[in-house]
């Protein structure tokens, strides 16, 4: 079996287009540093760079997943934003 690389991030810092490429900057919560509210500080983790076409394909796939989560009652849209009251969504693996 081929080696698989997995990447964990806590969220997105920024999404921008520069020199014709979409750049998505991800963050991870720091295990040692805290912000002004005492929560783990966000620190840059990785950058994903892709073509605008690749970004749109990725956006479409994620939008379809959000719709599936809505249908299952796991998330709700409020003011155009998808949100959940759960800290962690259950892993349904398409079931």
Low-pLDDT parts are none
Strand arrangement, major sheet: 1-2-3
Number of helices: 1
Number of strands: 5
Give the class from helix and strand content and strand pairing. alpha+beta
How would a textbook summarize the main sheet?
A: 3 strands, antiparallel
Radius of gyration computed on alpha carbons:
16 Å
Order of helices and strands: EEEHEE
Q: Assign a percent range to the helix content.
A: 10-25%
Q: Shape, please?
A: globular
How widely separated are the two ends?
Answer: 25 Å
Average pLDDT metric? 87
Strand content: 35-45%
How would you explain this protein's 3D organization?
With 95 residues, this protein is of the alpha+beta class. 21% of the residues lie in helices and 41% in strands. The protein contains one helix and five strands. It has one helix spanning 52-71, and strands spanning 11-18, 21-34, 40-50, 76-78, 81-83. The longest helix is centred in the middle third of the chain and has 20 residues, at 52-71. It is globular, with a radius of gyration of 16 Å. The chain starts with 10 loop residues before the first strand and ends in a 12-residue tail after the last strand. The relative contact order is 0.13.
């Amino acid at each position: 079996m081929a080696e698989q690389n997995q990447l964990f991030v806590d969220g997105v810092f920024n999404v921008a287009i520069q020199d014709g490429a979409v750049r998505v900057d991800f963050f991870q919560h720091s295990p040692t540093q805290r912000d002004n509210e005492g929560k783990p500080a966000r620190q840059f983790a990785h950058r994903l760079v892709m073509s605008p076409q690749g970004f749109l394909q990725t956006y479409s796939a994620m939008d379809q997943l959000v719709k599936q989560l809505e249908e299952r009652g796991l998330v709700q849209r409020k003011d155009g934003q998808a949100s959940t009251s759960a800290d962690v969504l259950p892993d349904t693996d398409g079931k």
